[in-house]
Amino acid sequence: MVNFESIADLVELAGKLGKSLADVVRQWEMERSECSAAFLQEEMQRRLVVMREAATKGSTLKEKSFSGLVGGDAYRLTQCDLFVGPVVGKAAIYAMAVSEVNAGMGKIVAGPTAGSCGVLPGAILAVADFLKCDDEILIQGLFTAAGVGEVVARNATVSGAMGGCQAECGTAAAMAAAAVTEMLGGTPEQASDAVALALKNMLGLVCDPVAGLVEVPCVKRNAFAAVHSLVAAQMALAGIKSVIPADEVIEAMYRIGLQIPCELRETSKGGLAMTPTAQAIAERFAKVT
Asked: How far apart are CA 192 and CA 241, in angstroms?
């Protein structure tokens, strides 16, 4: 039976079986859930459809969220010249679009959380546009991402309340980096390096939502994390290795999360949430409610 506890396990299994990380994760899920490959394919296709619909809808939204804090920014990006390039620009657009849909109570896929829901679709959909690939490649990427998310959830945390935003957007960036690496033909070892490169450079990222809402700075942070994942994948595909292995980076992220003061772990009692502007926003909302 296929089983894994770490990124190293996934890479080792891929080598032994002569498969990609995506195929290893798919086989593991088949055995674990006792579901057929066809059923799992359909389920992942459904998630891809939701991601794509949220990215499309959010890219055209001009309305603000109920709070008035976010909304319309993904659309604004679509209306300007993307000097950063089409893939990077689209990743930012799609990531922010999905996150804005979430802020508007729309349907999204939490990957790994609602607060980081734009990162993975932002990255893989932008790359898919560039590659002009079919859904099968995207679904493979989603299985790869799922395996990385499973390892982080088992050995650390994906909760902002427990580990800060490094656990949410950081993990999402790691998942996206691995997915993109395999989508572009990278090896399991390169995907592992992409995980490490993406996550280790987001260590210490705090969770400080203004007025307790998953909007500021969350929506724009999704865009930055999606772009971050592309850089990690590009580096890994170039043969750049992480000195610290992926599993050790995940462990470090967990320890750092426990060391982050509670004020900076989704309580809105520190960081940006305590700035004068944020406090004024919170006070205004308190009067309304």
From this structure: 9
The model's pTM is: 0.98
Helices (H), the chain: 7-17, 21-33, 37-60, 73-78, 86-103, 119-131, 135-155, 160-163, 165, 171-183, 188-200, 218-237, 246-259, 276-288
Distances in whole angstroms, Cα of residue 98 to Cα of each of 18, 64, 208, 218, 243? 35, 14, 20, 12, 33
What pLDDT shows up at residue 1? 87
Which residue's entry shows tokens 């949410």? Answer: 168
pLDDT digit string, tens, across residues 85-143:
999 999 999 999 999 999 999 999 999 999 999 999 999 999 999 999 999 999 999 99
| Contact (CB, 8 A) for 92 and 223 | yes
| pLDDT bracket for residue 228 (50, 70, 90) | very high
All domains of the chain in start order, with CATH: 18-288 (1.10.4100)
CA-nearest of 176, 162, 111 to 266 is 162
Tokens 């799992």 identify what position? 40
* Rounded Cα gap, residues 206 and 120, in angstroms: 20
State pLDDT tens for residues 172-226: 999 999 999 999 999 999 999 999 999 999 999 999 999 999 999 999 999 999 9
User: Which of left, alpha, beta for 110 (phi over 0: left; psi -120 to 50: alpha)?
Assistant: beta
Q: What percent of the chain has pLDDT over 70?
A: 100
Closest CA to 222 of 33, 55, 85, 2: 55
Residue 265 β-bridge partners: 207
Q: What type of residue is 80?
A: C
Tokens encoding 276: 């004068």
Phi, psi of 265 (to 5 degrees): -125, 70
Say how many Å lie between the first and final Cα of the chain, rounded: 54
